[in-house]
Input
Amino acid sequence: MDYKTSGGTTAQTTGDLYYAFIDSTNSWWGHAGQIFVTDSGSIGTATAPLALYGQVLGGQYNTASGNYSVVLGGSGNTASGVYSVVTGGANNIASGRNSIVVSGSTNTASGENASIMGGNTNTASGTNSTIIGGSNNKNGAANGIIIGGNQHELTSGTDTVFVGGTVNKSSGNANQSVLIGGTKNTVGGRQAGIFGGTYNMTAGTLTSVYGGASNTVSGTGTAILGGWSNAASGLYSVLVGGEKGAAQGQYSVALGGASTADTAKDAVAIGIGASANVEKGVAIGAGAVATEAGTISVGHNKGDKYYQTSYTVNGGGTVKEQTYSSNLYNRLVNVGYGKDGHDAATMDQLTKVSAGDRISVASETDQTTGAATYKISVNNDGAVASGDANLVAGGTVYSEVRPSSDGTYVKTASTTGDNLLALDGQVKSNADNISTNTSNIASNATDIRNLKDLSNITADGQTVIKKAAVGAVTVKAGDRVEVQMEKATDGSSVTYTVSAKNDGKVAKDDANLVSGDTVYNAIEDAKNAIDTDMDTKVSNKADIDASNVGKNLKGDDGSTAASDDAIQQNLNAWGSAVGTGTIDKNNGQLVTGGTVYTEVRPKEDGTYVKMASTTGDNLLALDKQVGTNAKNITDLTNLTNITDAGKTVIKNLAKGTIDMENGSYTTVSSREVDGVKTFKVDVASDGKVEEGNSGLVTGDTVYDALNKASQDTNKNLDKKANIDASNIGSNLKNADGTAASEEDQKKNAESWGKAIGTGEVKESDNRLVTGDTVAKAIKDETRVSEDGTYVKKDATAGENLKNLDDQVKRNTDNITSIKNITDNLDNNYAKTDLSNVTDEGKTTIKNLAQDAVKVVNGKNTTVTTKTETNGNISYAVNVDDSAIKDVMKEDMDKKADRDAGNLTDSDVTSWQKKLGTGESQSGDHRLISGDTLYNALKEVDGNTLMKTDGVTINIDQTGTAKTIDVRGKDGVTRTITGIATDPSDPTSAANVDYVDHRVESLNSRMTHEVSRAGAGAAALAALHPLEWDPDSKFEFALGYGHYKAANAAALGLFYRPNEDVMYNLGGTLGNGDAMMSGGVTFRFGTKGRKPKASPLAMQQTIMDQNAKIEHQDEMLKIQANKIDSLEKELLDLKRLITQK
Output
């Protein structure tokens, strides 16, 4: 029979009795059959189902009311759940099935399989939920874990872990998520994570927030690192730092308060207010906006969009579209020199200015800022002359084609075409008048036929005829010829001495004759110059033919010729840029072929001038018509009684008596003006500079020969030119860096003229024209190909127009006089001419005329006289070439060298000042100086341009601007490439590759660190001590942890000096940075109780007691037997006594 004694009352049962070792304050609820037993010892009938096998071991005020529940120690603990356990602590409740609370106070594990270890006022209500330490934490999520911290609310999702921090919570489907540290953060979404910070929120799959405040991530794979009030929603987008930023584009990155639009896939924005709004766009710098795909922007235009989140303290701010109301341009500083074709160029590279052909550059330094100002001038010192390849100004052309003063019909204010039309009209009028007068005069011809035979003319008459004949023939100087006249004292004869000039010089375009000595000296000088030049040969010399511009433009490969369209476009660009001059007096600008064409061509067809004809042809047509008019006018003069009109007839007869033939190196031509026949002797200059050639040569021919010799001796020079013209023209350098000879520089400048001065003088041709082209065009347009009666091939169009104008005026006046003469002849009885003079009379006149004119030997010439079969005398003038050579040298020394080698610095400066008159403004196509360019490139507020010391480029170093803008025309953004990031310099610009690398590296490191931390924490959590044993106070434990891809092992040491105090120390192994933990545990309870024995000691005590009890039982049995024997003996004695 089993029994329990309490309060002096013994209760006996018929069933099994379940019991617990209990304190007097503990409650044990059990049943034995139908008997209900309380701690007060009363016995009653059970009225409700009672816990099966509930146990309370130690402690006080503990209750184990759940089936198979256990309370081990502590105070006020309750294990009411099935299989629930409470170990230590105070006022803890394990009400869930299989729930457990270990130590701590006021903790409640109400969920199935829920567990709480330490801490206070924690509640684990979720299935398999866990809380370790901390206070006031609530874990209602299935498989959720809260480690430390306080006031957490893990109320939704599954498999989520909170570590440390305060007042954090979960929302929505926070499955397999983690929240470490921080305060007032909200984690939601699958496999999301928040690491530190405050008021951060996740709402998507694989999203994460690292630090910062009020940040919100949504979508998939998004992340925010630090910052405040940021939002990331794009697929796998990343936002780093800053405030109110928004990463909305897929795979986009926003740093430092920047944003990306939802369409900005793979975009990057860096800086507060920056926004990348297009795919693969990059915005760098505060306020930068990328609006064109695949480009980099460092500023924004008015109207550009950007995005910001509205601030809410708990995160979840709304992204709002904003619009910039003004332009903002940031500066890009500390940029390296560009090397490849698509690299960004620095201002230092862009502002290098050097002189090229027909370009001069002068620089000045600002004394305040130290910035250089460049003044670029275009040389327009070309002349309208054959072979001149230099640029010409409109004023030069103006002087060539306009008359120097107003005439009767031509005006300085009218174009050449208009002047030609005016002359054409007047010539037509004169021709009509002449035709009328000719018919009137024809009737007078019969009045002159009655003159007698002149064979009986007296000596005095012959003298009169000779004197008249003297004026019938005139010998004038032609090209390279001078004429001296000696007239008889009585005026009856004249002698002409014709000499050839040899004052030419060996210089370009010098067409005069030169002496052999002059040629010899020029050749010697050239040889000396060539020898000197050959001593300083250099490598890498540029071609002097401008081989990469104009008609020599090269393609992208730098060797093959560019397309015709590209060449034409290049030529037109040069024409549009510098050919803006007009044909106006004092106009120093350059002109195009089209401008010259408009100037010299008439606007409509006239009677003699035509739009389709050149100006020269029009002038020649006018000259012929004027000559015809003049001849008709001359024929109308009367000869009554050998008057002036009669003398004219005699002169006409005398013309046939004198003739001139070509001589050695001379050509004879003649013309008639006012009835006077003039002979012109031209000296041939078609000789060549070659052995055995006895022909006369011009300075130009000698120059070409010398130039060819120079080119032959320099054939080994490299002929490549720099594209920036830094080694051509006036910048031509020798190998030692010194300036090249002026001859080489001049030749280089002429080559540029040939390269870009390819325009033609025709309508709509906008290319540049050289002086030679203009000269040829004007020669073709305004110069006659041969001398006319009044127009000369060597005279300018203006001079020819003036001559024609004067002659037309005289013709007009003469027409009026002729009409008067005709009227007088009708009334005059002496209406006779010399038309009926007999042959004998004509012979007499010829003989008299021959005596009146003589041609004799002159300086450097000989004259040969020949009598023709018809009686006429011909004079052949021969030029002595050896004498010419002797007299040429002195005059050649006074001519300018063709290569401008004898020009002084002041001459060059004067030419350079003629061209740089353009201004940097819209519509101005003139050339500008370096000074003008520099001022145009300066910032509007006066800040200076870029400067460099060869290592660092400084942009506006002294300025206060905070933004850089590289946008082009109309606000078009442009891509900046080749940016090198210097990680050691915090101000260095970051390129996309560096940002991607850093973000990827940061994410990888963060993931790795979290994995290691998780594995280490798991390993440390696996360390547990054994039950206290007074004989074994030191213990050690091994633990293993795994989290994601990380593993860790842990070693723990435990020391218990007594059963109420335990010291512990733990650390991880083999997981990189070691994690350490240490602690001390104290047990508190009623002080008066005896020390609690260990289970081993208790077992030994029980065994000893059992042995003792068994021994006592044996003794009791022996005593009982003895008592039985004694009782029997007493009974026997009693019976014996009774019987007695």
